[in-house]
Design a protein that fits this description.
single chain; 241 residues; alpha+beta; ph1033 like fold; 6-stranded mixed beta sheet; Thymocyte nuclear protein 1; 5hmC_binding
Length: 241
């Protein structure tokens, strides 16, 4: 029996802790033009040690810039209960870990760009599991893609909040992938900390300067370059600020 649709996309909203974000009912109802961060400097008291360490690592490796390719992902899901058409769309990392084989389908995506990202995912690629639309959003775990894109069954289920009456079985509009839990991050990496580095990188250069978490913040499926993934992952080794 398929796991009910609990992942967050239709009904996606910007994170509560993101001050420049505006609440939106669905990703489809938002404009394609996302607001850029107004500040070019990191908040007072923020640490740049992560970027200093990254620059050192870059210089040791020759400092060559690679062509931008997306090979990792950030998947947003809501860890707190929220009813959508009478169905609780909550799905936390603990819910994923409770699944057989710690694996589930990532369904309910109803934004074309996010769907296209899903369709680009390759077997074995890793993604950050990101708790969104909650008291303190941020990265909690790493998952991997264990089945590439295939038709999302929830688009044909009239009882599902993500039902789409315009989608046809012979030509499905929406896709999903299967993901499996890999591990928890060594510590919770909050949005506020990632944002501090993003702002520093915008001002001084760095892998997070164009991170979609801030330039396309409402998308629930976001691609990451190898450099972005590695930098964010390096933060789990630092003490929280």
């Amino acid at each position: 029996m398929p796991w009910p649709s609990r992942k967050r996309d239709k009904g996606a909203v910007a994170d509560k802790k993101e001050p420049d974000a505006k609440i939106a009912k669905t990703e489809e109802e938002t404009s394609d033009k996302e607001e850029e961060e107004k500040s070019a400097k990191p908040p007072a008291g923020s640490s740049k040690s992560g970027w200093k360490n990254w620059k050192k690592k870059e210089s040791e490796s020759g400092g060559e810039e690679s062509k931008i390719t997306y090979c990792h992902w950030l998947l947003k899901s809501e860890p707190e209960s929220r009813l959508e058409k009478g169905v609780d769309v909550k799905f936390s990392v603990d819910d994923l870990k409770a699944q057989p084989n710690q694996t589930t389908c990532w369904d309910g995506v109803r934004n074309y760009q996010a769907r296209n990202f899903l369709r680009s995912m390759k077997l074995g690629q890793q993604a950050f599991f990101y708790h969104s639309n909650c008291k303190e959003p941020g990265i909690v775990a790493i998952v991997k893609i264990v089945k590439e894109a295939y038709p999302d069954h929830t688009q044909f289920d009239q009882k599902d909040p993500h039902y789409d009456s315009t989608s046809r079985k012979e030509n499905p509009k929406w896709s999903m992938v299967d993901v499996q839990f890999v591990r928890m991050t060594k510590r919770f990496i909050p949005l506020s900390e990632i944002k501090a580095h993003h702002l520093a990188h915008k001002a001084e250069g760095g892998p997070l300067k164009d991170m979609m978490l801030f330039t396309r913040q409402r998308l629930s499926i976001q691609p990451l370059t190898q450099e972005q993934f590695d930098f964010v992952l390096s933060l789990e080794e630092e003490k929280p600020h």
